Amino acid sequence: MSLGRVTKLFGVNDAGIYRLATDVAATPPTYGAKIDVVGVKALTAKLGMDIKQLRGDNTLLAADAVFKDVSGDLTYAKFNFDLLAQVATAAGASSVVEAGSTPNQSTKVTLSQADTPASFKIEAQSKQVDYVGGDMHFLLFKCTASSLDMFGFDEENYNAQGISYTSFPVIGTPTGLPANSWCQAIANETAVALV
Question: Fewer beta carbons within 10 Å, N or C terminal of the chain?
Fold first, then answer.
């Protein structure tokens, strides 16, 4: 008996960002260690299509579509120095600087004109699915931040944190998947932790 092809999706239990290290044709892409998205609230993804219509004689003669892009948002509750450094700086986590000793400790990350956004993988998990004891994972193999909602404060409220992203197909071939994969949904009968 198969696991099933339909499930509810309720809540999000975990998410991680993995900086893209290599992406070479005909080999699996490689990623850095997981940066935990602390307090993950939501992952959205919208698959965009480029639709072309051939018209003549005042009528539709043909229509075709191709995948254009995958875009969306990853929102979370707590400011994360490592996450910001991984997606927005050339140096990654090494650009986070900790200094001092109690009571004068500090942590800082600085973005400069010389920084370029890095590509990264997003993986998110929900354990509230129809498969008791199971889970659902969504993976986006190669994303680039299109905007970062990370700086600021709100009067009498928590400040929302988030990344808007655009996802592209990888150049390489993820293990067991077709070349140039964009994203993947995985249902597991037994929940699998993000690593």
Answer: N
CA torsion angle 45 2 194 176 (round to 10): -80
Q: Which residues contact 56 (CB under 8 A, 6 or more apart)?
A: none
For the chain, domain boundaries: 14-46+59-188
Q: Is 62 helix (H, G, I), strand (E, B) or coil?
A: strand
For residues 21 and 32, is the Cβ–Cβ distance under 8 A? yes
Backbone angles phi, psi at 69, to 5 degrees: -165, 170
DSSP codes joined into one string, 137-159: EEEEEEEEEEEEE-S--BTTBPP
What are the pLDDT digits (tens) for 163-191?
999 999 999 999 999 999 999 999 999 99
Look at domain 14-46+59-188 and name its CATH class. mainly beta
